[in-house]
Task: structure prediction
Amino acid sequence: MAATATSSAQHTYEVSLSGEFFAQDLKPILNRIALHSESSSEMHTREVVFEPIDAQQQREAHPGQEPVLLRARKELLEPDSPWILYSYLSPESFRVHPEATVRPWAVVNVIGDALSFASVLGFARRSQIYKRGYVFRRGTLLIQMFQQEQVRHTYIFNADPKTQQPIPAHTGTLWEVEVRTAAPIRNTQETPIGRTIEAVLEVQLLMKGLLDLRRQDG
Result:
């Protein structure tokens, strides 16, 4: 099936913090996040990361600068859930935003074959990840808590060879937490990005003593 897409406005951003913890700490962390969230649900997502076909040439031409990445995401617990394509650029510098990761972020809603659509745009599949866990809503933020069911290596897909389904994470697999804006935001007088950074830092403060949420540039 052919894919069509519409993208969000330009100059939109994502604000985020992330952390990880051992499985034995799940219950207290889960309880604290749930206590300070408006809603929660289970999540099981498939994410496919794409990079430009000429990504290596771009890296050689611009050392230290990563090319634009596309990330296709689909919620597996909702049979009719559409694919969503995210376009990420490098994070803003630490000197500008030392407290949280702030990066240009655009969303493309795709109808049809999103993976083929990304290929048509000149991108090649780099990796595939399955995430299973929980997602919480807190105002304009999403808090995802998950274990990876997919190893993060180029062209290595840790799926059961018979069913082609991801293999459940081992009980000792690290849990990851991502606190991020639910949708791209614009830095305007009406919606200053500083307000969103404060909202993310509130979650960091709420989790103090249980979970270290920090800025990441990756």
